[in-house]
C-alpha cells in the first residue's frame, strides 16, 4: 500500500515517534503549523476519522486520550485537535490522523 503513514508505522520512513503503542503512533508534523504540531495516527489503516468511527470506534477515543497525555507531558495550557476530511477540507494524506496543535494562540473561525 502506498501510504506514507503506514510506511512510518512499518519503520520504512523515519519519524521521531513520541508515542508507539498497540493502537497508534504519534510524531511531529513535517510542516508544523504551531510550535507544537503532532500527528496522532491509528495503526489500523482507514481513510479518515469517520471511517475509523465505523470500524473501530475505540481507536478514535485512543487518539484523543493520546492527545490529552501529550498535552500534559508538553505542558500545553490548551490545544487544538483537528481532523481534515476530504481534499476540500485540506486533507492531503488519506490515512486517518489527528492533528494536535499547541504553543500559540488560535483564532476562530479557523483558516
Ligand atoms: P492533512 O493535510 O490533514 O492530510 O495532514 C497531513 C499532514 O502530514 C501535513 O500536515 C503534512 O505536513 C504531514 N506530513 C506529510 N508527510 C509527513 C512525514 N513524512 N512526516 C511527518 N509529517 C508528514
Question: What structural keywords apply?
Answer:
single chain, 111 residues, HIT family, subunit A, five-stranded antiparallel β-sheet, 27% helix, 20% strand
Task: Provide a quick synopsis of the model.
With 111 residues, the chain is an alpha+beta fold. The protein has one domain: HIT-like (HIT family, subunit A), CATH 3.30.428. The chain is built from three helices and five strands.
Instruction: Give a short account of the largest sheet.
Output: 5 strands, antiparallel
CATH topology description: HIT family, subunit A
Strand proportion, as a percent range, falls in 15-25%
* Order of strands, widest sheet: 1-2-3-5-4
Radius of gyration: 13 Å
Identify the CATH class.
Alpha Beta
What is the overall silhouette?
Answer: globular
How would you portray this structure in words?
With 111 residues, the chain is α+β, with helices and mostly antiparallel strands. It has a single domain, classed as HIT family, subunit A, CATH 3.30.428.10. It is 27% helix and 20% strand. The chain has three helices and five strands. The protein has a five-stranded antiparallel sheet, with helices on one face. A hairpin with a 7-residue loop joins strand 2 and strand 3. It is globular.
Produce the secondary structure layout.
Layout: H1 4-9, E1 19-20, E2 24-28, E3 36-42, H2 49-55, H3 57-73, E4 80-82, E5 98-102
Antiparallel strand pairs: 1-2, 2-3, 3-5, 4-5
Helix pairs in contact: 2-3
This protein binds adenosine monophosphate.
Amino acid at each position: 500500500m502506498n501510504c506514507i503513514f503506514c510506511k512510518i508505522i512499518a519503520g520504512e520512513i523515519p519519524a521521531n515517534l513520541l508515542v508507539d503503542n498497540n493502537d497508534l503512533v504519534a510524531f511531529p508534523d513535517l510542516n508544523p503549523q504551531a510550535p507544537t504540531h503532532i500527528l496522532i495516527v491509528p495503526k489500523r489503516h482507514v481513510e479518515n476519522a469517520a471511517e475509523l468511527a465505523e470500524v473501530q470506534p475505540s481507536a478514535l477515543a485512543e487518539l484523543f486520550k493520546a492527545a490529552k497525555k501529550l498535552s500534559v507531558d508538553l505542558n500545553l495550557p490548551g490545544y487544538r485537535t483537528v481532523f481534515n476530511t476530504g481534499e476540500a477540507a485540506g486533507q492531503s494524506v488519506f490515512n486517518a490522523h489527528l492533528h494536535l496543535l499547541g504553543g500559540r494562540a488560535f483564532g476562530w473561525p479557523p483558516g
